[in-house]
Design brief:
By secondary structure, the protein is of the alpha/beta class. The chain folds into two domains: about 5-125, Enolase-like, N-terminal domain (Enolase-like, domain 1); about 145-435, TIM Barrel (Alpha-Beta Barrel), CATH 3.20.20. The chain is built from 13 helices and 16 strands. The strands form four sheets. Strands 5-15-14-13-12-11-8-7-6 form a nine-stranded mixed β-sheet, covered by helices on one side. A three-stranded antiparallel β-sheet has the order 1-2-3. A hairpin with a 2-residue loop joins strand 2 and strand 3 (about 30-35). The longest helix has 23 residues, at about 180-200.
Amino acid sequence: MSVSQVHSRYVYDSRGNPTVEVEVTTGKGVFRAIVPSGASTGIHEAVELRDGDSAKWGGKGVLKAVSNVNDIIGPKLVSSGLKVTDQRAIDELMIKLDGTANKSKLGANAILGVSIAVARAGAAEKNIPLYQHIAGLFGANKTPYVMPVPFCNVLNGGEHAGGSMPFQEFMIGPVGASSFAEGFRWNSEIYHTLKSLAKKKLGPSAGNVGDEGGVAPDLTTAEEALDLIVEAINKAGYQGKVKIAMDSASSQFFKDGKYDLDFKNPNSDPSKWLSVKQLAEKYHELLKKYPLVFLEDPFAEDDWDAWTYFMESGVSVPIIADDLVCTNPQRIATAIKKNAANTLLLKVNQIGSLTETFEAAQEAYDAGWGILVSHRSGETEDSFIADLVVGLRTGEIKSGAPCRSERLAKYNQLLRIEEQLGDDCVYAGEKFHDAFKI
């Protein structure tokens, strides 16, 4: 069955900024997708088309992207007669229509909205769940399905929160649980314990939350944050069962070849900025002291030598590349060649279509990498990545804290999927990094 109508409008994301919503109509019904948006965006991401009209939404309007769907992509897709189950053909049609390497003409936010809505229409056409349709498109349609470990960002810093904390995310992952539902309950209990501890130790405002739902106390060092999280895990009764992970988002504090951990201070002292070797030593110290199971973006997005140096320094946990590769197959290939990382952070809006997302995932798997599926900081109620993580069998997802409905939309969908699958799924647990092999 082909598409009879495509309609786009602007709606709002969790930051109150406009974003693109797309509806694709077939004989089976109307299928909707809303596109997320990042704050700490990599410079190598596909272009999120914004209007730039300072008189409206501070320049962040998406009327051009909406118009591109309604006036260019939609009519072309309808007239093509392509079946909604032919995801690759539809995505390639849009990519060709755009004609640029980074989707700057039509906008990755326009193309991705249509791509995801088409995937939902394709699943309905086959009368199967979305995760099963994705698994089929990707070529991973086998049972049991793998339910992911939820890495919840329980303490926010960096660009996602006020205060002086330079590191962006501190996550907890219930690797010792027996199911997704049990693991997420543990995360919820630890989150509430952490919030109470933060308020007790640092005052009522320490319980305020950042963009991704984690508490955002005014802490300065990684050690302060990690000590607080370890205390919360232990107090909640999950010592040894729940591990910790960090996303440094270090491109935000990369200056003149060094790393400024006081970057939020406009008068930071350049003599205290860290060299690559000094920052690497700091990470090694943290890995020895705390139950960390991965580090994300430990170095800046174009500081290739730093990534390779760190990988060759005997690092003991997965090193996740986000801004370094931006879900872009060409940059992933470079990272593989340089041995700069060993895990891909997968964000669909960094590349801008599902077909290219699948290509990026396959390239990572072929190199023996793990894959962490991720939300964006500017999120919506769209739960697509929950089905994506199950369909791709990545075994790990991060979608923020157990707080704020745009975060819970994904986790709640995973609860539904696990319930629906019953005995036809297993929880990734401690095998999260190699879940595709399960």
